[in-house]
Amino acid sequence: MFKKTPHIKSLSNLKNSERKKLLQSCKAQTGSTDYNFPTSVIKQTNFNAQTSVGVIYTDEEGSPLWFKEKHSELLFPTVYTCWEDPTLLPIVLTHDIVINEHIFNGANLMISGTLPPFDSRLVPATICGIATRNNPNTIVAVGVVQLDMPSYSSVIGKTGVAVNVLHYWGDGMSVAFKMKRDIPTIVGGKDKSVDATENDQSPVIITEEEKTEDDSIPEISSNDVSELAQEESALTVEDIDHFITRSLYYTLTNDLKLAFPIPSSSFISNHIMRNLPPVDHNLVNIKKTSWKKSSKFLKHFEKEGFIKLKGKGEDLTIVGSNKEKEELKKFEPYRISNSSSNSGKKINSNRQESENMMYSLVFYSPKGSAKQFMTLTELPYKNWYTAIELKNAVTEYIKKKELVDKKNPKMANLDDRLYDMCYTKKSTNPPRHITRAAVIESFTTNNFTELYQLFKNDDTPLTKNPVRGSPPRIKIVTEMKIGRKIVTRVSNFESFGIDADALAGDLRRLCSGSTTIGETTTSPKTTEVQVQGPHSKIIIDHLNSLSIPTKWIDFENKLKPKKIRN
Question: Domain named SUI1: which ranges (predicted)?
């Protein structure tokens, strides 16, 4: 229902009598007599979606609670309502990959993707929630049951739509109401911190910051702080070995700038040390490990089968790696440290911007015959790959098929598969003997869709998945309107997580001028903030303070230069 952002009108308060009637309908349809609205004031607005129209009910703050279609009395709770009351709907469980790759892309839930046994209430026409087996109490999508689910003891080989999905986390409704809440982890039952005499059976919502190994969090006195600091400075050799080993795993699996062959000194300083977890580099370095020297460290992991070396003594070169190692396949990347004691700059090798700025990463999604090609490589099949992964995949294929020119290793002789993929639009007899660099470039350009993903300066992604196209650019235009009034317009900023109302308020204060919020006249239509006066420099400086790098900002001055009188 909300695959695309619906058009919504301004909110209006419900009358008290209508509010009570709505609450009774919600209780009757869900069978939850204990349910109540989170605020005393309930608002409503009409929506116009791609395939339907209807009404959305929100709380006092404008967060969507319930919605229904026009000419229907059936009320659907939003996922945000279900997070506050996880027992509101019967739940269908599915796999994480089904949620992330299908449900969150607007698909319905098929019976083959569900996990039995099923709740006895899951009969056709019943409103239900969808959750993952790893987070079974957190509803991430809401829909209507299409099949008699309890009659299925096994779903292997079964076909058909199990749930017609109407709303999911991050859909068009969430975008329209600017909902930025992340999916919580909900633990059913009673909070252990609550006194046993209290009869509060409501679930506990745990955010990422609140997750701990134990439910109780011990208090740390000021005297304990110095003891903790002393413990950190007294890291054991095993601890340091663990940190360095983790950095090696990260480097071999996630470092986009790693390219072989590479001298051992560069490998250690530019990759191993830069990819450490957030620890003090004075405490964690090669000299403090059990290996003591980088050469011993590298030779140990060559013996273990992780890397390939050339050279003798201390003069070593890393010429390759083995990504088939089980440790690398199971490795889960972590957030690497932001700075070292020797440098005030960011040491994340994936970064393209300074410490305070957002940055973007480019990915490539296979299309057509590229999907089959990727299954022939050693890489696991994914929806998107990095440039270095594609380079390694093509290089490995060329070596495996013995396509390298023996007289000139920089050249390659294309086999039929690579020939068809490199020349999707064939000219008159295109050559089969071309440089390996040209093979990689043509292979990537003709068979993959470019994607991008924006990240905040704390490495948090702005979007759950990469987005098709190139990174957006904020547009700033200074011009003279009718009546000889100079204005500065700012648009295309919402992709960076900037709220129009907040930006207008900031510019009104910084520029000491009135602001208005409207829509661009050019296609595609985006929100635009206009402020009186020529304030491009102030606006650019303000965007920089919001972590937007200047290279992502386009400024156009449409004011005519003053004529010089003779």
Answer: 474-547
Amino acid type, 167: H
Classify residue 304 by its DSSP letter: T
Q: Cα dist. 543→455, 463, 490, 497 in Å? A: 15, 19, 11, 12
Reported as type and span, the H/E element at residue 540 is: helix 536-545
548-565 residues labelled b (16+ CB within 10 A) or e (exposed): bbeebbeeeeeeeeeeee
pTM above 0.70, yes or no: no
Architecture label for domain 474-557: 2-Layer Sandwich (3.30)
DSSP state of 404: B
Place of tokens 């229907």: 72
CA angle, corner 161, sides to 160 and 166, nearest 5?
A: 170
Assigned token pair, 35: 């349910």
pLDDT tens, the chain, 566 aa long: 888 889 988 899 999 999 999 999 999 999 888 899 999 999 999 999 888 899 999 999 899 999 999 888 899 999 999 999 999 999 999 998 889 888 988 899 999 999 999 999 999 999 999 999 888 999 999 999 999 999 999 988 889 999 999 999 989 899 888 888 888 876 653 333 333 333 443 444 444 334 333 333 334 343 443 343 344 445 678 878 888 898 898 888 888 778 888 888 888 888 888 888 777 777 788 888 888 888 888 989 988 889 988 888 777 888 888 888 888 877 777 767 544 333 333 334 334 445 578 888 889 999 888 888 888 887 777 888 888 888 888 888 888 889 888 888 888 888 888 888 888 776 667 888 888 888 888 899 889 999 998 888 777 888 878 888 888 899 999 998 877 889 999 999 988 989 888 999 999 999 988 999 998 888 778 899 999 999 999 999 999 999 898 889 999 998 877 655 65
Yes or no: say if 291 and 242 are a contact pair by the CB < 8 Å rule: no
End-to-end CA distance of the chain: 66
User: What is the CATH code for 1-183?
Assistant: 3.10.400.20
Cis-peptide, bond into residue 263, ω within 30° of zero: no
Fold of 237-329: Arc Repressor Mutant, subunit A (1.10.10)
At residue 505's C-alpha, the angle toward residues 500 and 508, to 5°, is 120
- Does 1.10.245.10 match the CATH number of domain 360-450? yes
**What does DSSP assign to residue 134?**
T
Can you read off the two tokens belonging to residue 547? Answer: 């972590």
* Cβ 463 vs Cβ 457: under 8 Å: no
The two tokens of residue 227 are 């003891």
Structure tokens at 58: 């929100």
CA distance readout (Å), 503 to 43, 358, 539:
25, 17, 10
Is residue 252 within 8 Å of 245, Cβ to Cβ?
Answer: no
Q: Which helix or strand (DSSP H or E) is residue 539 part of?
A: helix 536-545
Residue 89 in contact with residue 204, Cβ under 8 Å? no
Report which of 314, 274, 277 is spatially closest to residue 294, judged by C-alpha positions.
314
Q: Where are the domains of the chain?
A: 1-183, 237-329, 360-450, 474-557
